[in-house]
Design goal:
With 406 residues, the chain is an alpha/beta fold. The chain contains 14 helices and 14 strands. The radius of gyration is 23 Å and the shape is globular. Bound molecules: adenosine monophosphate.
């Protein structure tokens, strides 16, 4: 389906055509008509599916028709990175419209406070905010949300995971009941359904192919001992000189530092990013990676969701992510919008069960590659057989001679 079939405002069509959008993605085809019709939405869609345009284009269409400078749209997101990224997309979509948007998020110096409070009180159509900073403004009493007509909660599951439930409820208490509410979430656990039942009115529900990485991603895994991970990543990266954009995820800041040090020693162009960095430094590191000045970026979980970096060739999960959903999100950084990419995970003995759960979620077995012989022998990949497919399959042990419960 092409975008002009939705009957969107001509200026929006012109802008997205400049941005290179030709055909609507699945989630866009599903949600845009319903949002244009004024329905509340509960949509299960991952980052990388085009969900930002899915909610923003129809909202912009409404705002273009209203042609005023009321603060009528509030987009609440879990992280500052996502806020920045959504705002950048809005600037693109609204390039030919007289509509403005402002981000509100923490971690900047005080000079942003005045600009934010001004935006929250007059003259801005759209606010894209993280809950904590928005609450700080709300606490001071000057925020005018009485004209809000569109409320978007993006990555709602992530917001609940971070512990923003109470903040969201507070924010909602400031927003008029007579509004359109659009809730997007990568997963649909019970707590999201409960939140949806509290805040949405007769929502139309949509789901794109749930929790599966994009089809263009080649997924593979090395089964390694923990102390083999650094040699394997070094060998992997040095043997792939043609890949110019590699993103490595690790579970801790300490490991990020260790990986960066080791890859640097081997002569690679590499930088690390974690919550230890100031906001400005994080943005600079991301910019160098985006512009291909840095070839390898090593990140903790801060980056795993929501960040829109195009054309990453290789994702490495140095550690298996804590949840299957996070795996899908990390792998979602590659092969975006019809591109192909590779995602490689390192599985040590402790993470085999975790990885097995991931394979169940994505409904496929990931190719296991043996550790290169010069780096020694890796462990044997074993999972409790009765857990595979949820069916009991006889009495095999988890690993030789061990009690499966240990
Ligand atoms: P999102 O899931 O909103 O983070 O979008 C992922 C990426 O896909 C962003 O870089 C968008 O600009 C891009 N994108 C979204 N929709 C389309 C489309 N219909 N055609 C081409 N690219 C798109």
């Amino acid at each position: 389906m092409t975008f002009d079939e939705f009957g969107l405002n001509e200026k929006i069509l012109e802008a997205i055509s400049y941005m290179g959008y030709e055909k609507a993605s699945e989630i866009q085809e599903l949600t845009i008509p319903a949002i244009l019709d004024g329905h509340d939405i509960l949509a299960c869609a991952q980052t990388g599916t085009g969900k930002t345009a899915a909610f923003m284009l129809p909202i912009l269409d409404h705002l273009a028709a209203a042609d005023n400078h009321d603060l009528s749209t509030l987009v609440v997101v879990p992280t500052r990175e996502l806020a920045i990224q959504i705002n950048q997309q809005i600037q693109g979509f609204a390039y030919f419209l007289n509509i403005n948007s402002v981000t509100v998020y923490g971690g900047r110096d005080g000079s942003d406070w005045d600009a934010e409070s001004k935006a929250l009180t007059k003259g801005t159509n759209i606010i894209v905010a993280t809950p904590g900073k928005l609450i700080s403004h709300l606490n001071l009493g000057y925020v005018q949300f009485d004209k809000i007509k569109h409320l978007v909660l993006d990555e709602a599951d992530r917001m609940l995971d971070i512990g923003f439930y109470d903040d969201l409820m507070r924010i909602l208490s400031y927003v008029p009941d007579n509004r359109q509410t659009l809730m997007f979430s990568a997963t649909m656990p019970q707590k999201i359904r409960e939140l949806a039942s509290k805040i949405l009115k007769n929502p139309v529900e949509f789901s794109t192919a749930v929790s599966k990485p994009a089809e263009g991603v080649l997924q593979a895994a090395y089964v390694v001992h923990e102390n083999q991970k650094i040699p394997v990543i070094n060998s992997l990266i040095s043997n792939k000189p043609d890949l110019d954009s590699i993103l490595v995820f690790s579970s801790t800041k300490r490991k990020v530092t260790e990986i960066v040090k080791s890859l640097k020693r081997a002569g690679n162009s590499v930088e690390g990013i974690s919550s230890d960095l100031e906001q400005k430094e994080r943005e600079d590191v991301l910019m160098r990676f985006r512009s291909r000045r840095t070839r390898v970026l090593v990140a903790t979980d801060v980056l795993s969701r929501g960040i829109d970096i195009k054309d990453i060739n290789l994702i490495i999960n140095f550690d298996v992510p804590g949840s299957a959903e996070d795996y899908v999100h990390r792998v979602g950084r590659t092969a975006r919008a019809d591109k192909t990419g590779i995602a490689i995970s390192f599985i040590n003995e402790q993470d085999m069960e975790k990885f097995d759960r991931i394979e169940k979620l994505i409904e496929m077995e990931v190719l296991k590659i043996p550790v290169p012989p010069e780096l020694g022998e890796g462990p044997v990949y074993k999972v409790r057989p009765q857990r595979r497919g949820g069916r009991p399959q006889g009495k095999r042990n988890f690993s030789s001679g061990r009690n499966p419960k240990q």
